Amino acid sequence: MKSENQKAKLLYIEKYLRENTDENHPVTTPRLIEYLDSKGIKAERKSIYSDMDLLTAFGLDIEKVAGRSGGYYLASREFELAEVKLLVDLVQSSKFITEKKSRELIQKLELLVPHHEAVQLQRQVVVSDRNKAVNESIYYSVDTIYVAMSENKTVRFLYFEWDENGKQVLRKDGSYYEVSPWLLTWDDQKYYLLAYDRDAQIIKHYRVDKMLHLETGKDARAGREAFEQIDVASYGRRMFGMFAGQPRTVRLAMPKSLAGVVVDRFGNDVPMRLLDEQTIAVRAEVSVSAQFFGWLAGLGAGVRIIGPDDIAAEYRNYLSSILASQ
User: Fold this and answer.
1) CB proximity list for 29: less than 8 A, separation 6 or greater
2) Which of 58, 62, 80 is CA-nearest to residue 71?
């Protein structure tokens, strides 16, 4: 006599195979019958054979291990353990995802591998000491922005900054910003929205983790022409901390040992040439700002701006003002 759960038999078998089996952990037919019985489903050995054939025909990569201690296991999955480990690392290291959301995401990622492999993921979960975001809504803000872009709509939000007491203070006296979203970009572990400000008629940047009460606006987006003039591929490379500055072509001289640092910052197509056996010249498109000068200073005394002259002078003034304030 068939039980009430009999129609769910194939679903339970697939669930068990995904959660408990791999090439080193096949499930025997008696164990599978026992498992189904615990779910109120009656099964016989012959029916298990038929079920495996049916699931294989459906597309599951099920392998059979011959012998008395053999059984069945799921040979391939959408994600391998190494891939899931990589996703866990990305979630852990992402500053824009809060600690709470990080744990929730990792728990869901654990469902992609068998239980005995999920233990390896749990050993990696050390997020409490990370400098994680505190804005819980960012997780959904990103989705809202993508929806607005797909629907060609503006977005509205409150925008805050931190005061000297570590408290959130709303900008514009708590008034809403309304801008036309065109691109989400990633810089220094943070999400930034590139959007067109209709009033100022320019592209501006907004940190997504500093947005509150984000919602889709009613108006159609503006600024398509302005955004289409941006070379998206090089845009992020010339920005430092996504701080806007005057776009300029600068020429740098530095030890050739720093070539890798330059490639990491500007890409492997950045023009470089040898000045002498130990020094290279670099030409790069940057947005000149205090953040750019700070990056240069961090590379050490062997790095200097060799052109244009006005940018070199501005850099010297930047360094001198820091020394004068010490």
Assistant:
1) 45, 48, 71, 72
2) 62
What number of other Cβ atoms are within 10 A of residue 114's Cβ?
21
pLDDT at 141: 86
How far apart, in whole angstroms, are the C-alpha atoms of residue 282 and residue 294? 17
> What is the value of pTM for the model shown?
0.52
Backbone angles phi, psi at 21, to 5 degrees: -120, 150
**Cβ–Cβ < 8 Å for 247, 287:** yes
Q: What are the distances in angstroms from CA 267 to CA 243, 249, 264, 279, 295?
A: 19, 15, 6, 19, 16
Q: Is 221 in contact with 182 (CB distance < 8 Å)? A: yes
Per-residue three-class SS string for the chain: CCCCCHHHHHHHHHHHHHHHCCCCCCECHHHHHHHHHHCCCCCCHHHHHHHHHHHHHHCCCEEEECCCCCEEEECCCCCCHHHHHHHHHHHHHCCCCCHHHHHHHHHHHHHHCCHHHHHHHHCCCCCCCCCCCCCCCHHHHHHHHHHHHHCCEEEEEEEEEECCCCCEEECHHHCCEEEEEEEEEEECCEEEEEEEECCCCEEEEEEHHHEEEEEEEEEECCCHHHHHCCCHHHHHHHCECCECCEEEEEEEEEEHHHHHHHHHHHCCCCCEEECCCCEEEEEEEEEECHHHHHHHHHCCCCCEEEECHHHHHHHHHHHHHHHHCC
Could you tell me which of 102, 203, 212, 292 has the C-alpha nearest to residue 193?
203
The pLDDT averaged over each successive group of 10 residues in the chain (326 residues) is 74 91 90 92 90 92 86 86 81 73 84 79 50 64 88 94 77 94 78 89 86 93 86 57 68 86 78 87 85 86 90 90 85
CA separation for the pair 296, 279 (Å, rounded): 16
